[in-house]
Write a structure and sequence with these properties.
Helix content: 25-40%
Radius of gyration: 14 Å
CATH topology: HIT family, subunit A
Strand order of the largest sheet: 1-2-3-5-4
Number of helices: 3
Number of strands: 5
Distance between the termini: 35 Å
Structural class: alpha+beta
Length: 129
């Protein structure tokens, strides 16, 4: 059965895209820990991050770097934090989170509430940055 991320890649489930190429997709997290929190995924469905083929693993961070720069241009923050946890969805992914302190990456904190309209507008800003 395809992961929810594979279903997003195939257009079966909508997302708020912030970046895409032939191998990777980036979109806003719908339950963000901070405004601008995005997920970067390979289009190849592999559960564990370090099980990705070397060429896919080698390319994900340069792709994420471009997305992170666009997020930082739109969302005020000190830097973009990076986290690879991999327990929530069985599809390798990287979290990009605008942060001002280490505590901004605490996944146990209440999530930021954003409407679909707010997410769509933010995604558009990030794509244009």
């Amino acid at each position: 059965m395809a992961s929810i991320f594979s279903r997003i890649i195939h257009g079966e489930i909508p997302c708020h895209k912030v970046g895409e190429d032939d191998r990777y997709l980036a979109f806003l997290d719908i339950n963000p820990v901070r405004r601008g929190h995005s997920l970067v995924i390979p289009k190849l469905e592999v559960d564990k991050f370090f099980d990705l083929p070397p060429e896919v693993l080698a390319g994900i961070m340069p792709f994420a770097q471009g997305v992170a720069k666009r997020i930082a241009a739109v969302v005020p923050c000190d830097r973009i934090g990076v986290s690879v946890v991999g327990l929530e969805v069985p599809h390798a992914h990287v979290h990009l989170i605008p942060i001002d302190s280490i505590f901004d990456m605490d996944f146990s904190k209440p999530k930021v509430k954003m409407t679909q309209e707010e997410l769509a507008a933010l995604a558009e800003q990030i794509r244009r940055a």
